User: Which sequence fits this backbone?
């Protein structure tokens, strides 16, 4: 099998998922991954300060995904690209509801598509594969185990609508057969490997809750299919190797990307207690309707990811193994 060499750009590479992918790529041999660029948006945080990001084949670019500032320069500097992964997003549904206009500007990759297409039209023979991180929240939550080419998307909040608009924009404005949107469920893992994120991680909340004596409420009527960040990286890497630069793919334009377990947050808490070998007596099951979160949340956006798993030959780990990995009880 021929060796795949790549030039890669990770838009939003300084964020949670982006760092797992960035680390993986920078640890590959130089004749396999020739160059890796990543974008960051927070002017105060700046580029990632880590030994891996200081090697010559890694470049950081400050890009404003909402306005497009810096995007053309970034794409031009990294050209010719083989793979572009778009992780940039406003991913808090509550924040998206409050700042709907900004959410649409950030989550629909208008400027990324335009910059990539400009390069393609200027003479790049084959456009890079564009992998876009979408969400399970494009589904309305009315039925379990959604299937991407059976259940039509019908988002119930601004976050879901912005992500669906992104899928549609890419389909209409990028090269046919050179893009794929991955509808991710909740992403789990440890703190990212290159720079910690400021937000609390959900598994930390669960663990801290289990340590206390007081009852802690968890929703019993909202279902997801959580997936480990390292399994998402495995999917993306597999897709990049399958696509090559020889021809257009005949894949679906959108794939569900979740783990094998359909779980409520109560299920997640109780299974985490099993992993830790502690009591789950203080886990209190409540309805999601008992809390006003300021945003409509779909009830059951569990989904089947068989099609993507069959394509990439990745077998995502279940919740208990995800927790063992996140908590340092297992090796990556």
Assistant:
């Amino acid at each position: 099998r021929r060796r795949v060499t790549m030039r890669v750009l990770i838009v939003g590479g300084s964020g949670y998922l982006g760092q797992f992918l960035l680390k993986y790529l920078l640890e590959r041999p130089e004749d396999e991954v020739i160059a890796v660029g990543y974008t960051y948006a927070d002017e105060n945080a700046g580029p990632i300060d880590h030994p891996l990001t200081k090697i010559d084949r890694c470049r950081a670019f400050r890009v404003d995904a909402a306005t497009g500032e810096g995007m053309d320069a970034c794409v031009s500097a990294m050209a010719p690209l083989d793979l572009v992964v778009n992780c940039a997003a406003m991913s808090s549904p509550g924040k998206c509801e409050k700042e709907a206009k900004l959410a649409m500007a950030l989550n629909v990759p208008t400027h990324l598509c335009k910059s990539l297409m400009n390069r393609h039209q200027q003479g790049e023979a084959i456009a890079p594969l564009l992998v876009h991180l979408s969400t399970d929240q494009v589904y309305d939550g009315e039925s379990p185990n959604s299937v991407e080419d059976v259940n039509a998307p019908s988002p119930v909040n601004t976050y879901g609508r912005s992500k669906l608009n992104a899928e549609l924009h890419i389909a209409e404005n990028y090269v046919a057969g050179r893009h794929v949107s991955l509808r991710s469920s909740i992403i789990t893992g440890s703190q990212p490997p290159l720079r910690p994120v400021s937000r609390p991680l959900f598994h930390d909340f669960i663990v801290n809750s289990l340590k206390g004596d007081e009852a802690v409420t968890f929703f019993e009527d909202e279902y997801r299919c959580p997936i480990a960040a390292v399994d998402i990286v495995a999917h993306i890497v597999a897709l990049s190797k399958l696509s090559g630069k020889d021809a257009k793919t005949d894949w679906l334009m959108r794939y569900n990307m979740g783990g094998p377990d359909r779980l409520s947050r109560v299920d997640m808490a109780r299974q985490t207690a099993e992993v830790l070998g502690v009591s789950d007596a203080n886990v209190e099951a409540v309805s999601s309707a008992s809390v006003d979160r300021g945003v409509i949340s779909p009830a059951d956006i569990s989904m089947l990811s068989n099609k993507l798993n069959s394509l990439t030959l990745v077998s995502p780990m279940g919740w208990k193994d995800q927790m063992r990995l996140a908590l340092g009880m297992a090796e990556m």
Q: What stands out?
A: The mean pLDDT is 93. Residues 158-173 form the longest helix (16 residues). The radius of gyration is 20 Å. The CA atoms of residues 63 and 71 lie 6 Å apart.
